[in-house]
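Question (not urgent): is this output format expected?
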Amino acid sequence: MIGILCDTGSDLPLELANKDLIEIVPLKLMMGDKEYHENEVTEEEILKFMESGIPKTSLPSYEDVKRGFENLIGRGYKEIIVVNISGKLSGTHNLFKLVGSQVSEENPDLKIEYIDSLTLSGGIALLIDRAVELIESGMDFRGIVFELKKCAMEKVKVFFVLPTLKFLRAGGRIGKVSAIIGEALNFKPVVSIGQEGDLIAVAKARGMKKAVGKLLQKIEETLKEKKLRAIGVYHSGDDEDTLRFVEKIKKKLLEIKAPKIIERKISSVLLVHAGKGLVGVAILLV
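Got this back:
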């Protein structure tokens, strides 16, 4: 049987996260001198802390990752596909490979393949959703791994808009985004993931409303002469403006007759780097 190992930064919708073949390892975050597993603290608590402080994130522990592998093995999975956030954005993928090498030594019959998603959040969720479809269709292990790597390199696109770069900058994740943005002038970036898996700004606009308009344009441009397989809509916080932008995006997706739409808030660890008010989409092409 084929199982999938990922982490909470994958932002899987609940119906996908609850599948037996998926095991999710919690990432960690720190608020002041306290450390939490991601599922131990609420969005409300994090946003409250962020009013006066800067939370930090860290990799899962070696033990938590090993437990993830062992849980899948214990449920009878002898072939495991590991999917993590882009290696350019986190050391999580390398940690899973390190732990997996030891697990392989202890389980000689076990097959493990590692996929650097070259993306984050909803992009990973769509990759894993595709993996589940392929597994349930009966495709073999190598075929699935080949298809997922191709999807990661060629078929997954992510676009999101941030009200502020403050938290990205504080977490050292700013990458190439800041080069075109003048925050003093209220410019907001439309952020994507480059071919190497790093954050890049692909557009900017003055104010969130216009920036979301630019995001919608990016969706249209991406789908020109290409067929959509699935799309994810993500956000952080529950501000009235944020929810209105989410509805605007969903309306657009209905207009283009998106065949599959998933929706959820971003994970706590990603919230630490984004703050409230993020809106974005992840696209999986055929």
